[in-house]
Amino acid sequence: MLPDVQFAATAFATAITIIDPVGMIPLTIVATASTPQRRQRIINEAVVVAAGVVLVMGLIGRDVLAYLGITLPAFTIAGGILLFLIAIDMLFARPTGAKQTKEETREARDTDNPAVFPLAIPMIAGPGTIATVLLLAGETRGDRLRILIVFAAYATALLATWLCMSAAPHLQRIIRPTGIHVVTRLLGIILAALAVQFVINGVVGTPFFTHA
Fold first, then answer.
1. Domains in the chain, please, with CATH?
2. How confident is the model at residue 211 (pLDDT cuts 50, 70, 90)?
3. How much is the pTM?
């Protein structure tokens, strides 16, 4: 398989598994329980804000790491460990603190506009999402095609998230909690494998993909 095709497959898999559009269904219902009549507008704002965070981190993330003196292998190892912890929570179908704490869940029920907090941050664009954006941006090595692939991957994941959040009440009745947990566990397995690979590459000090 060509390196760019491998990179695209990993970028799309990473973006979708870390954001977990299906897992956003119950979180959306909880966060907008007090304002169901404004749910769609809140969802729109949340996805736009999350997209802005992803875009900014994708554009300046490498420069920030360089300014702080953090090497890509070091961040790759740290990011891989964080993703693995998130994957463990997904595998056991339990809420992850990297997405939202119990205190934040309670606060979400009481706030009038949960679009920015907690829906956009940290539910959609949380530490795990930011870490994967930085990891994949680092793996592009300045290649324009790969940069476009990364942004396309997250645009697709955000579109899927917007669709799932918009149809959350209907999807929850169709999929039910058991179905949501099954999908989340499957995504958790994929994310765990990706996380381990990131750590291995960070330890070895080689890029995830090399040009043919």
1. 3-204 (1.20.1250)
2. very low
3. 0.85
